[in-house]
Specification:
By secondary structure, the chain is of the alpha/beta class. It has 6 helices and 6 strands; from the N terminus they run βααββαβαβαβα. Strand 5, helix 5 and strand 6 form a beta-alpha-beta unit. The two termini are 23 Å apart. Pfam families: Isochorismatase.
Amino acid sequence: MKALLVIDVQNGIVNAGDFEEEISLMEQVIKDFKIKELPVIFMKHLDEAEENPLHKDSEGSDLHPSLKDYADIVIEKKTPNSFYETDLQSQLDSLEVDHLFITGFNTEFCCMFTAITGFDRGYKVTFIEDATGTVNTDETYEMPELDIRDFVGTVLHWSNVIEVVDVDEYGEYYDSEVNE
């Protein structure tokens, strides 16, 4: 069975930038999973540091209202890896999931770490590159003209173990409702 992971779509991230396009693409994929009655699992990062926008007791840690009503399951995490010290593995096992689709924030941390760990745990993993986003920029990494999503997608693609697609390709490959 397939399952969609929607990682860290929380107020503290979404409100930090202009992510209208990314949210729209995530919603397209979510709706496709809903139509097919496949599980949609939201990961929610909670941080202990009060200055962090995802502090566990802040509104920043709440799921963003644009997508929160789509969550079948919400799993809290404390690290970029959605599997580390969470019950994600047991939830996926109980649903008999063997193929994970990754969307959400931040591309180069939580999405990438989760994709790699998912593969390491035996799942087929599809990373939907344009349905991820990040608050970081080329300036964050002092790498002029760095396209973070494209870079991460290329690295994962070159691994030859994680499938990397954009939303249109997802629609073509998986016979979805995305482009209708």
